[in-house]
Amino acid sequence: MSLEGRRIVLGVSGGIAAYKAPDLVRRLRDAGASVRVVMTRGAESFVSPMTFQAVSGHPVHDTLWSAEAEAAMGHIDLARWADLVLVAPATANVMARLAHGLADDLLTTLILATESPVCIAPAMNHQMWLHPATQGNLTVLEDRGVAIMGPGAGDQACGETGPGRMLEPQDLADRVQLLLGRAGTLAGVKVLVTAGPTLEDLDPVRFLGNRSSGKMGFAVAEAARRLGAEVTLVAGPVSLDTPAGVERVNVRSAQEMYAAVMQRAADSDIYVGAAAVADFRPKLASEEKIKKGTEDFQTIELVRNPDILAAVAGSENAPFTVGFAAETSDVEQYARGKLDKKKIDMIAANRVGVDHQGFDCGDNALTVLWNEGRQDLALQPKSSLAGALMQLVEERFRTARDE
After folding, report:
1. Residue 70 pLDDT
2. pLDDT 10s digits, 218-235
3. pLDDT classification of 184: cutoffs 50, 70, 90
4. With 0-12 CB in 10 A as exposed, 13-18 as middle and 19+ as buried, what is 100?
5. Which residues are tagged catalytic?
6. Non-local CB neighbours of 159 within 8 Å, separated by 6+ positions
7. What would the pLDDT profile of 30-63 be if each residue is shown by its tens digit?
8. More exposed terminus of the chain, fewer Cβ within 10 Å: N or C?
9. Do the beta carbons of residue 282 and residue 201 sit within 8 Å?
10. Which of these ranges, 154-168, 269-283, 312-326, has the smallest mean pLDDT?
11. Which of 198, 202, 209 is nearest to 301 (CA)?
12. How much is the pLDDT for 401?
């Protein structure tokens, strides 16, 4: 998806989450949007207008009573200029004023004057968010057609935990792209992604698992969505937020993941198997907790799990199939063997068991292989690495489709 040529007014109100707004401006501009910033007086207590002028490339608008502004782009012109008005952060006070139609500053006035869509990203203490007055204002705004983005839940500046955190800048930028974005290069393409580990139960307490965090697979799903694809993410048990615009299917075991994938593979154009699927599971899972007893060890009989990657690649009308290979040594040799044996279209290989990349890390590096070639993707954050990988996948997918 792209925001090329889109015009966004970003309203920034007086909450601690205002410190995230300059990063939001940068991400919107990176997607191609032109951004004008409107600040409330309260917002200026948290972030300098000069900061927003620097990141947006335009002067900040902060008052109704500027002769210079009214002679150039006053509140009416600003309201007409916008393709979208986004308020981030939107405090409880701003929500209340918008719900009651007040127009006592530039931000609330231009929102009344615009015919363009309005979105808010609430940010406040969790008790304020859950207060009946705020929830009532939320209902009014939703009924009026205002798009509500968030809030998220987690640690807050006050030291408490709960709902009320403003969504992260990239998440907000992604949601804006879903609202306004122009069709991306994968528009009309269905992408199926797996992510995370699978857990194979030994008894009601214990399981066999691995260290996969799911971050790479989630980043791949998000990257595919940004390119305009219709994305379904089959996720093992991980605590990660679903990327905006992505359909998520939660599973636990390898057998559950196999069933979910095979149900959807025939209707997919591209399959990216980024999950760390367990090769084996216990032959019998105990219905009760296994006691330690007097033995020095327990013998657990294992059976092989279904090979999801090979099954997808070998299915009738198989999608363009991309596998992952996590290896501790001879990475390219093992990955090349997996590519040939499973008859898949591409494989992304990475080394694990080393510091600062792979499992449990925010960074990774990949060697991407296909029958006719290879390309190394250097160590970088998984979000940007996923973008580079999906560009390669798209290139090879289109080449294969044209052959």
Report:
1. 47
2. 999 999 998 889 999 999
3. confident
4. exposed
5. 158
6. none
7. 999 999 999 999 999 999 999 999 999 999 998 8
8. C
9. yes
10. 154-168
11. 202
12. 82
Residue 185 belongs to a domain: no
Q: Which of 187, 186, 322, 200 is nearest to 265 (CA)?
A: 322
Q: What is the CATH number of the domain that holds 75?
A: 3.40.50.1950
Residue 72's pLDDT band (boundaries 50, 70, 90)? very low
Residue pair 285/203 in contact (Cβ under 8 Å)? The answer is: yes
Q: Would you call 269 exposed, middle or buried from its count of C-beta atoms within 10 A (0-12, 13-18, 19+)?
A: middle
164 in the same domain as 214 = no
pLDDT of 173 > 90? The answer is yes
**Spatial separation of the C-alpha atoms in residues 275 and 82, rounded to whole Å:** 41
* Count: domains in the chain: 2
DSSP structural state of residue 125: -
C-alpha to C-alpha distance for 42 and 166, rounded to whole angstroms:
17
For residue 151, say if its preceding peptide bond is cis, omega within 30 degrees of 0: yes
Please give the residue range of the domain that contains residue 130: 7-180
Residue type for position 221: A
The mean predicted confidence, pLDDT, of the chain is 89
Which of 126, 148, 180 terminates a domain? The answer is 180
Nearest residue to 85 (alpha-carbon basis) of 109, 49, 69, 53: 109
Residue 251 in domain: yes
Q: What torsion, rounded to 10 degrees, do the Cα atoms 248, 251, 254, 260 define?
A: -50
Q: Looking at residues 151-168, what average pLDDT do you find?
A: 82
Q: Is the pLDDT of residue 14 over 90?
A: yes
Short-list 376, 351, 207, 381, CA closest to 278: 207
Given 162, 180, 198, the domain boundary residue is 180
- What angle do helix axes 132-143 and 92-99 make, rounded to 10 degrees? 50
Closest to 147 (Cα-Cα) out of 169, 110, 116: 116
Residues 33 and 117 occupy one common structural domain:
yes
Please tell me whether residues 18 and 150 are part of one structural domain. yes
CATH number, domain containing residue 249? 3.40.50.10300
Question: Which of 45-54, 104-113, 177-186 comes out lowest in average pLDDT?
Answer: 177-186
Confidence (pLDDT) at 71:
46
**How many whole angstroms separate alpha carbon 286 and alpha carbon 95?**
53
Interhelix angle 92-99/106-113, rounded to 10 degrees, is 40
Which helix or strand (DSSP H or E) is residue 122 part of? Answer: strand 118-122
Between helices 169-180 and 21-30, what is the axis angle to 10°?
Answer: 40
